[in-house]
């Protein structure tokens, strides 16, 4: 009989609601909350332990929380780790994804969770762990537990995990070749698809093509000598200490920093926090990324009308398209408020 | 050629050639100072072709035990939608001897011609099959082209099979553009309602493919493309082809160009297994951080589908597709 560890928050763990969200993690060898129903649907394994942790506690102390949970798990044997379902919950979903990813990497044991498609945890962790789809509220609990137990049983009985649509999990972004039944050869599939397309019947392409939305190219700046110019960078140059806590990868925020009075950004005062390249060159000379001196000189020499006295900074590595578009729109609004006519975009 | 054909292990299901009878030609250069590498070795290729010709001569004038008849009756008109088959040929090796040939002429020199499907089945096309074993149409594929046979079966029933247009993989951008224009013009002149476009190899030919689809769709010719995908060995590279365009809303995916497989040790091996390490072919490697060397001490292999002869199968053989995991 294989052993399963089940993670849930303080609410489903029966501790309390928001007032108990700061509760530190604890482990128990009894079933609680949805654990009873889930366990009843497992075959080939059983839930031996339940871990409960407050949403706020893990959210505010992620490292301490996973360390503590890691300590609990070191003492026990287990074959599968399950968290959630978190439905549309923000913190709970992120915490489920975070702990599953951690357990999977640290203990080399499969781990999965379950969320609603718009929960923030999906985008953050679907590339790392299996996240099953479920409804957006606890009203969908029965269905969620049914798909979670079916998925768990596949692991417990050593069955092959099929592709995302077949199993009902969010794609991890991995594309793989599969072998189809004998009659589904390419000529049959192609002629079937062609006849459907000819007759205007619905058909499904086997390779969906998603193209990023294209930003229209603005007209050229006619007279740079009177243009108001701004500098935006995804190179990750920030004042030493990263005061705005911009993430080193998969950034979700940006910040603005004023150029020094004399237009020279010196090593020791600025640093690169970009996690996607060797930062030593940028640390040695931050102006490899933010050419403050050259910008000031161009302004002085009349090559541009006016330089916005601060630049926009974020990191561009592994930044999701959704977050990049969101930041670009916010930065665009700010630039419009400043009546900027031209932007220099410096990458890493 | 420069690939591996698994006839018994987990790779056997990947290619239509895995369960057929093969006559293998093996040779060594008598001068040991000559590079023994397989890549672009014209002597080996010429030897294999001479052998094929010799075998062919032995049955000359005889009636085969089994044969199939495919014909297009002239003046046979119907209201059924008119469909053309567009086949991309291998045509970008500027050194002669490695491209597909059409009536003996290197396909690099052609602008896309209109061809009778029987010319293909009867052997007017000979494969160059250079370099990437998993992504080439072989002469056998051309002579037994399942997509042509399937369209013949539909002919007069659900559609009118209008003919075949050869497309190219242009070695330069102007040739790609010229090729794509010519394919669409020919299809339009034939009065086609729809086109099936078959691509045996990905890479820079994707540009020719998508330019063709764009031009065909722009002329109102409904197009379905058939080819493979490349998402990298980790399956996470996007875009999956060198060029993508949303004008392609119908794509039959025949598999992944670089899916990793483990092939167990085999009792009988024809050819030189050590060459996997000596001249790593596309799809094999001397060292890899994740998988280690392709050839292991026990004789087992870890390879990707670039090296599996006939993995692509877009001419109709393929039973594979790709899914999101």
Descriptive overview:
The complex is a heterodimer of chains A (348) and B (325). Chain A is an alpha/beta fold and 348 residues long. Chain A is 32% helix and 19% strand. In chain A, the strands form 3 sheets. A 6-stranded mixed sheet of chain A has the order 2-3-1-4-5-6, sandwiched between helices. In chain A, strands 8, 10, 12, 13 and 14 form a 5-stranded mixed sheet that branches. A two-stranded antiparallel sheet of chain A has the order 9-11. The mean pLDDT of chain A is 94. Chain B has helices at residues 42-58, 117-121, 139-143, 146-154, 173-189, 205-218, 275-278, and strands at 82-88, 101-102, 105-106, 114-115, 125-126, 160-167, 194-198, 222-229, 251-256, 260-263, 301-304, 320-324. With 325 residues, chain B is of the alpha/beta class. Strand 7 (175-179) of chain A pairs antiparallel with strand 12 of chain B.
Helix percentage range of chain B: 10-25%
Shape estimate of chain A: globular
Q: Helical amount among residues of chain A, as a percent range?
A: 25-40%
pLDDT below 50 for ≥5 consecutive residues: which ranges of chain B? none
Q: Give the strand line-up of the largest sheet of chain B.
A: 4-6-1-7-8-9
Q: How big a fraction of the residues of chain A is strand? A: 15-25%
Trace the largest sheet of chain A across and list its strands: 2-3-1-4-5-6
Most extensive chain-chain interface: A-B, 38 and 54 residues
Please state the average pLDDT score of chain A: 94
What is the N-to-C succession of helices and strands of chain B? HEEEEHEHHEHEHEEEHEE
Spans where pLDDT lies below 50 across 5 or more residues of chain A: none
Please state the structural category of chain B. Answer: alpha/beta
Domain module count of chain A: 2
